[in-house]
Design a protein that fits this description.
Length: 465
């Protein structure tokens, strides 16, 4: 598999630190609000990365943190007059609600900054001991210039970084480029005991500490949105590599931004949408489909049209799913025909094509196109009198791949299918008993649910009107 490594700016063959295992650290949300539609992009994309590695036979450890203490969380808590934990806990819960809706699986570990203060203090102390950091009045700063290779990820010359850092500089820093590892307690803010007095961690250090604790000193892949390249990831590298004396991450992956109607999303411009808002209009799964319909390194444009297109394409995929599942139950007896065997070979070739797309730096857009090719191939058989054997083999192949992308997984659809199928069975039973009043009642009930019935040689089929 080839991945584009932001560090080398090249697609590189993926070689794990330990054969058969992948360790991924993906920067997670700051939990002070519902997450927005832009945040959803890295969560979905790197969930697919993890699923694809698992499909390919790797054991994956996937860590995604919660930044549960920082200025934004504290400000929100002060606005509401509640402790910061109330805000953090509330939005962690809301994260899981939206993530589940979007088909984003729970990470192996979701560490919180506040549960790792000991590990954070330990790495800050190591950096002080090694001369990479210095305390000033209860704060601790990192000497950016001392780390050889500072700027190597964002490819910014030191002069540019210096120029940027000179704005609004804190006089107590030795150098404007230095950044905070530990912040001295301010009145009314949460704080923890440390060798430098009461305080709280800076943002960058939490990821270095948690990656170290949950994944080890050198991890395979570190990921996040492209905005995190500088300063966040640059600083994580400086911290981890100076503390551990070895490379921090072998591959850096960054998703491009999501824009709204071709504009940067911003609260002040009035084009800011949470996932919760968007899901209320389109449902969750079309959002996931939309995110995967472009390559993760291309900017993507969120608009009503693009979501409606995603929705329509997803509906086609669900119709195919229902049709296949129906024939798994109701197809003809016996072995697959010659033509079916040929189609199964064609599906094998399409699975290869799917893998080739995913192996090419996670090209989910092409992978989705392959799924539609599979649907066309399967349908060419389903139009005749397909066997159950074929339907089952085709279903296994098709659903293994939809699962990699986390598509057509909606439980709601499954619940609906179950309910509809139970009603259809009850109607058939009523007909058999010549209880036509009951059969008609069930037919009307299904009609009111928007379900259209169709009698076929294989039995009653249904679809949503
Ligand atoms: P935050 O909670 O702001 O730290 O962001 C969580 C994740 O969302 C990070 O990986 C960000 O890089 C990413 N992100 C934020 N805004 C966008 C956007 N508009 N498009 C894509 N990714 C974004
Ligand atoms: Zn991070």
């Amino acid at each position: 598999m080839k991945l584009f490594n932001s560090m080398t700016r090249q697609k590189e063959e993926f070689v794990p630190v330990s054969p058969g295992e992948v360790k991924i650290y993906s920067c997670g949300p700051t939990v002070y609000n519902f997450f927005h539609i832009g945040n959803a992009r890295p969560f979905i994309v790197f969930d697919v990365l993890r699923r694809y590695f698992e499909y390919s036979g790797y054991k994956v450890t996937f860590v995604q943190n919660f930044t549960d203490v920082d200025d934004k969380v504290i400000n929100k808590a002060n606005e509401e007059g509640v402790p910061f934990e109330v805000i953090a806990d509330r939005y962690i819960k809301e994260y899981f609600t939206d993530a589940k809706g979007l088909g984003i699986r729970e990470a192996t570990v979701h560490p919180k900054a506040t549960e790792n203060i000991d590990a954070i203090i330990e790495i800050v102390q190591t950096l002080v001991d090694k001369g990479y950091a210095y305390p000033v009045e209860g704060d601790v700063y990192y000497r950016a210039r001392k780390f050889e290779g500072y700027g190597k990820l964002s490819k910014q010359p030191l002069e540019d970084l210096e120029a940027g850092a000179r704005i609004g500089v804190d006089e107590r820093k030795e150098d404007p480029m230095d950044f905070a590892l530990w912040k001295a307690a301010k009145p009314g803010e949460p704080s923890w005991d440390s060798p430098w007095g009461k305080g709280r961690p800076g943002w960058h250090i939490e990821c270095s500490a948690m990656a170290n604790r949950y994944l080890g000193k050198t991890i395979d892949i570190h990921s996040g949105g492209v905005d995190l390249t500088f300063p966040h990831h640059e600083n994580e590298i400086a911290q981890s590599e100076a503390a551990n004396g070895c490379p921090f991450a072998n591959y850096w992956m960054h998703n491009a931004f999501l824009n709204i109607d071709n504009h940067k999303m911003s609260k002040s411009a009035g084009n800011f949408f949470t996932v919760r808002d968007a899901a209320g209009v389109y449902g969750y799964e079309p959002i996931r489909f939309f995110m995967l319909s472009a390559h993760y390194r291309s900017p993507i444009n969120y608009s009503r049209e693009s979501l409606e297109q995603a929705s329509a394409a997803l509906t086609r995929m669900y119709s195919a799913k229902e049709r296949i599942l129906f024939l798994v139950e109701n197809g003809a007896d016996g072995e697959s025909s010659e033509s079916e065997k040929n189609t199964l070979s064609a599906l094998d070739a399409l699975e290869e094509k799917f893998r080739a797309a995913m192996d090419d730096d996670l090209n989910t857009a092409d992978a989705i196109a392959v799924l539609f090719e599979m649907i066309r191939a399967i349908n060419s058989e389903l139009d005749g009198t397909p066997t159950r054997a074929f339907a089952k083999a085709a279903a296994d192949k098709f659903f293994a791949l939809t699962e990699v992308l986390g598509l057509v997984q909606s439980e709601q659809e499954d619940d609906l299918s179950k309910e509809v199928e139970e009603l259809i069975a009850a109607r058939q039973a009523a007909r058999k008993e010549k209880n036509f009043a009951e059969a008609d009642r069930i037919r009307d009930l299904l009609r009111d649910m928007g379900i259209v019935l169709e009698d076929t040689p294989q039995g009653v089929k249904w679809k949503k009107a």
